[in-house]
Design a protein that fits this description.
Helix content is about 35%, strand content about 25%. By secondary structure, it is α+β, with helices and mostly antiparallel strands. Helix 1 crosses helix 3 and helix 1 packs across helix 4.
Length: about 350
């Protein structure tokens, strides 16, 4: 575990408050096992404890801290989203650190939901989206165990190890599934004393699936693009109970380039979206599918008529709480985007549907 995590942990607990810090440690130790403390669990006391416990337990604590601190990356946003979805009473004036530890200690389903959203948003990977139509979803542990077993077999068959852990959180409106698994082993030369010897290791990967029940829309964040198809098929058959959903001819028809190319997309704001601007585009010139024509910046209206639009980058200006925020993202028709990970993703999706660029 990185040294900086150990250094940050005491200050994080201090920001959360002495009572929550004490509650955190008392789930790991009996009170009589802890050294006495006079004025709460301050950073010096926490550092003292961390310096005197077993290394494996310290690694567990610091890994938990990594996940707790992850959901504070954007301040209160993720804890508050999870709190609203699961009816958790979080004080509006509370610190994000206190909200995050409260979820971790007392509301594990809400915490799992918040952390999965973090993994989904923080990834550099683009998201693939798939229309599975099904709107009634009731998931239990048995169904997810079967899903986990199938994905474990899938990864093992590709020599990516037997490790595969699956968690899920159902907030009512959305089902979020996260999958931790391995990848192919890697070997790097390392110094061992005065000799160089090979060191083998297997990196861990985090994939996330988000299912919007109201629209029957599955969004998939994967570490390896080819895995998305397996996730869609396993999800349709084992979670939704209908394998044929994965074979629907319009399954991947989520975005269309037509409004951008036929002039129907007017680039005017609407509602909370006060301004929209093209920031770049890629086209396949007619009759040259292997050639990509890149157009930087705004360009002109006629630029997008030079071939088939395969990617477009858009900047949105959003009015929120009396302030304007800029969000820039990319659409790759028919089903790839990074906009679902951005702030105000729902507002942007509603705007794109209104303008005819998003079909689901």
């Amino acid at each position: 575990m990185a040294r900086h995590r150990e250094q940050e942990f005491p200050n994080f607990l201090q920001a959360a408050g002495a009572d929550l810090a004490e509650q955190y440690f008392l789930r790991l130790f009996r009170r009589e096992e802890l050294p006495p403390y006079l004025v709460g669990m301050n950073p010096d006391y926490v550092e003292f404890v961390l310096g005197r416990i077993d290394e494996s337990l310290k690694a567990t604590i610091l890994d938990e801290f990594r996940r707790i601190s992850d959901i504070c990356k954007w301040g209160k946003e993720l804890p508050e989203i999870a709190g609203r979805r699961f009816g958790v009473p979080l004080p509006a004036t509370g610190k994000p650190e206190a909200m995050a530890i409260r979820l971790f200690l007392d509301y594990p389903r809400a915490f799992g939901f918040a952390w999965a959203l973090y993994a989904y948003r923080a990834s550099y990977a683009r998201i693939s989206q798939h229309w599975l139509q099904h709107r009634e979803v009731r998931v239990d542990a048995t169904a997810m165990d079967t899903f986990a077993s199938e994905m474990q077999a899938f990864f093992a068959k590709q020599d990516r190890g037997l490790q595969c852990q699956v968690g899920f959180s159902d907030s009512g409106a959305e089902l979020v599934v996260w999958v931790l698994h391995g990848s192919q082993e890697r070997t790097i030369p390392c110094w061992q004393g005065q000799k160089v010897a090979p060191n083998c290791f297997r990196p861990a990967c985090e994939d996330v699936l988000v299912y919007d029940k109201s629209r029957g829309l599955l969004s998939v964040k994967v570490s390896k693009r080819g895995d998305a198809e397996q996730y869609v098929r396993s999800f349709a058959r084992l979670v939704l109970g209908d394998a044929s959903l994965a074979d629907h001819p319009q399954r991947d028809l989520i975005y269309t380039p037509e409004p951008f190319q036929n002039g129907q997309f007017d680039w005017a704001g609407s509602g909370a979206v006060v301004a929209v601007e093209r920031r770049g585009a890629k086209l396949n010139p007619d009759g040259a599918a292997d050639t990509v024509l890149e157009i930087a910046g705004k360009g002109t209206a006629d630029d997008l008529k030079q071939g088939h639009l395969v990617e477009i980058k858009i900047k949105f200006t959003i009015e929120s709480n009396g302030k304007q925020e800029s969000v820039t993202g990319t659409l790759v028709p028919p089903c790839i985007t990074d906009l679902t990970k951005k702030r105000h993703a729902d507002v942007i999706a509603d705007y794109l549907r209104k303008k005819g660029a998003m079909l689901r």
